[in-house]
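Quick question: what would this complex look like in 3D?
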Amino acid sequence: MLKLGIDVGGTNTDAVLIRDDQVLGATKASTTADVTGGIVTALRDLREKSGLEPAAIGAVMIGTTHFINALVEGGSLASTAAIRFGLPATRALPPFVDWPEPLRTAAGGHSYLCHGGHEYDGTQIGPFDEAEFRAVLDKAVQAGAESFALSSVFSPVNAEFETRAAQIIAEQLPGAPVSLSHEIGRMGLLGRENATLINAALRSLAEHVTAGLTRTVAEAGITAPVFLSQNDGTLMDIDYARRYPVATFASGPTNSMRGAAFLSRTRSCAVVDVGGTTTDVGILQNGFPREASTDVSVAGVQTNFRMPDVLSIGIGGGSHVAHTAGRTAVGPESVGYRLTERALVFGGDQLTATDIAVAAGRADIGDPARVAHLERSLVDAALAGIGERMAETVDRMRVSAEPVPVVAVGGGSILVPEDLPGASQVVRSEHHAVANAIGAAIAQAGGEVDRVFSIGPQQREAVLDEARQEAVDRAVAAGARPGTVEIVDIEEVPLAYLPGNAARVRAKAVGELSLGGDNDA
Amino acid sequence: MNGTRRTSPHPTAAAPAGLNRLTPADLPALAAGATLLGSGGGGDVALPARLLRHTLAAAPVPVVPAAALPEDALVVHAGEAGAPDVLSERLPCAEDFARAVRAVETATGRTADAVGIIEIGGLNALAPALAAAELGLPVLDGDLMGRALPRIDQTTLALDGHPACPFALTSPAGDTVLVPTCTPRAVAPLLHADIAALGGAAALALHPVTAGTLRTSGIPGSLTACVRLGERYLAARDAPPAELAARLGARLLCAGRIDELRPRHGAETGSVTLHDHRDGAVVRVDLLDELLAVTVDGETLAATPDIIVAVDAAGHAPLRCDQLRTGRTVLILHLPALHRWPPEAAHLVGPRAYGLTLTPATGKTPAPAGAAPERSST
C-alpha cells in the first residue's frame, strides 16, 4: 500500500511517501499558522519531485504537535466545565485544582462536584442523583460553559455515571461536546480528569483543525482515509481525533523514535534526536518507545499520560559556542529557528554548533569559507564536549551495560560523533530529517486495557487472557486487521497493602491497519 | 522497657534542633525523605503532599517532640490504612483523619494534645500533619516504625505491649468504625475486614497514649530526621551514584539493570534480579509491599528493618516496588534505619516476619548495618 506520512511540527511540515519498506519521496516545508498551508506546499513539492499520483495513495497518516502547542500557549481553548462524580469523597481536591491560573482562566475553569462514583470493586459510593446533576448542568451553562468534561471515581472500573450524565447532556444540549474520563485516561483520578479537561478545552480547535486537514487532503485529489498519530505510536481515524485531540500530545517524540527505528531497521536502540536547541535521547524496545515511570506535566498540569521516556540536554544545531578563559562551552543558549540568519556559515555573527560541524568538515552547509578562520583546537574542544555529553546521556538511558545501536536523527544529527562511546554503532539514514513523518506513515492500529482486576485462586491465567482479549478487541475496533493483531505488552502489578488479590493489569495490542481490503495488496 | 532503644543513635542528635513547625518550604524535603524511608513502599506521597501544600500555605503546623509535652498529655496516632491505589481515585481528605481522631477521643474520654505519626515512610509521614491542621493540634516529632512497614502490629508500641485500641476507621463516604476494646490478636483481622468494607482504604486513628509512654516506647525525632534526609537527597540527587550514596549516609549495593521481575502473589514475596554492571555480580532484591532484602552473589548484605531504596539510574528518582520494570537500570541503596530495633523484634520486623530465609554475609563483604547503623550525617 502507498502511504503518505505528514508531520506538522511547530516550525516545519514534513511529508514522506512510503511503499512497504521503501521511502519513495520526502520533502520539508514551513508550517503555517493555519496548519494546512504547510501541507499544501509539501504535497505540491512531493508531486513535483516524485511524480506522486494522489489517487494511488491508500492512506494518509498525520502527526501534529498543534494541539499541545495550543495548550502551552493557552490559545483557542473552549470554555470548559468539569463535572466530577465522587461526593462526599474527593471534595478536598476539586477539578482544576493546582492548574496554573492563566491556563485555568483560558479554559473556563468551571468546576463542579456531584455525588456518586464507584469503589475499586465496582460498587457504588452513592446513587446517581439526577436532579443534582441537572442543576449543576444548568449552572455550568449559565456560567458560559461550551464543552463538558465528565469524571467519576473509579470510572475505569465502572463508567455508568459518566455515560449516564453524557446522555443527559446529549438530550439537554444536542451537539455539545462531551469528554468522558474513562475513555481518555487511566487509573488516578486527578491525572485522568486533567487529561479529560484538556481534551474538552481543545474540542472546538479540534473541530476546526480536523476539518481543515480533511479538506486540504481532499483538495490535493487524495481520496484515501486520513488518520492521526496517537501518543503510543498507533493511529486514530480523523473523526476520533476530532473528539480526542489530547491523544495526539506525545505523538511527536513517539513518531520521531519509531521513524528512526524504521530507517535503521532495528527494533531496539537508543535514538538521539538533535534539533536546533536540544538533543532528546529515548530508548526503543521492541519497536515502541520505553515509557516514563513518572507522571508527566503538560503546560504545568499534572496528567497521567504515559509519555516516552526522554532525557533532554541543551545541545542542538543552533547552540551558542562560547570560548572563554580556556574553556569551551556549548549551549544551552541557542539561536533556534534563526539558524539561517544568525550562524556564521549563513553570514551571521553568532558562533554555533553548526558552524563547528562545518569547520570540522562534517557538514556542508552555508559558506564554509566563513568558518575557515576558526582555530582547530577550538573546533576539537567543542566537538569533544558535545560528544561527551551525548555519550553520558545515552549511558544514563540505556537498558543494559552492553553497547547499544544509536540512531542519529534530526537536523543537527551531524553533531553526533561516529565513535560515540557506549554505542555499538551510530546509524544514520538519508531520510533522518523526516523521521517524524516516517513514524506517522508506518503506524499501526492499537488497543489498550488498563484497570484493576480481582484475581481469585487459580484464575490468574484466565484474567490475563481476558485482558489480552479485550486489548485485541479494542485494536480491531480501532481499525486493525484481525489476523495481524498481536499483544506487544502485558503487565500485572498487584495492589500494595490490600489483602486479597487485586491487581492492576495493563495489556496493549497492535495490528496492521485494515482499509476494507481494497488497497491492502 | 528497652534500654538500648531509648539510647539508640539518632540522626538529628547532632543537628542544631528539631523542627518546631512545618511550613510550605519544608514540604519538598518532607515528601522526598518520606519516599526514601518508604523503602520502596508506603504509598505515593504526591496526593497528601498536594493537600498539605494548600494546608500549610494557610498556616504552618506546629511540631512538638514527646519530651516537650507534659508526661500525661494524650497523643493519638493517625494515618491512612489500606491500598494507596484506592486513594489515587477516591482522594484523601483531612477531615476523614480528624473524624477518626475524634472518634478515638470520644472512646477514651479525653481530648488529644497532639497527633502522632504511625509510620514515617511513604504517605503516612504526611497524613498526620493534615489531621493535626484540621484539629488545630501540633504533630508529634516521632513515629512508631522508623520507616514504612505493612502491618499495624509492627510498631514500637505493639512490641512493648501497648494496646492499639480504642481505634477508629473512617471512609470519605461518612462511615465511621470504632473499636473501643479488642485483644491484640484481633487488631489486624478487624482492620482488614473494616478496610475491605470501607472500599479498600480508610483513615485510621489508633494508639492513644501519653507523651510519657512515647518517651520510653516511641521513636523520637523521626519527623525532623525525615525532613533532613529529604534535604540531603534533594541537594545530592544530581551527583554521581557514589557521591549520592555518601551524602545520604547510604551504601551503594548495586548499580545495574533489572533482568527479571517475579511479582509478589498475595502474602508470598516476589523479587527482582539484577546484574550489577560494575562487577557483574548477580543481585536479588526480595520484596512484598516494600523492598525487604538485598542478596549479592548469594550473600545477604541488607535486610528489613533496614531501609532499602531503589532509585532510577537516570535522574535518581526513588522507585516504589510497583514501579520496578525489567530493562530499567537502577541503583540499590542501603540506608541506615532511623531506629535500632532490639533483637527480640526480629520476628516482628526482620526477614522472618515475611517468610524469608536468607544467608547472612560472611566476613569477606561488609556486614549489613542493620544491627548497628553507622551514621554519616553530622
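Answer marked as accepted. Chain A touches chain B through 48 residues (CB under 8 Å).
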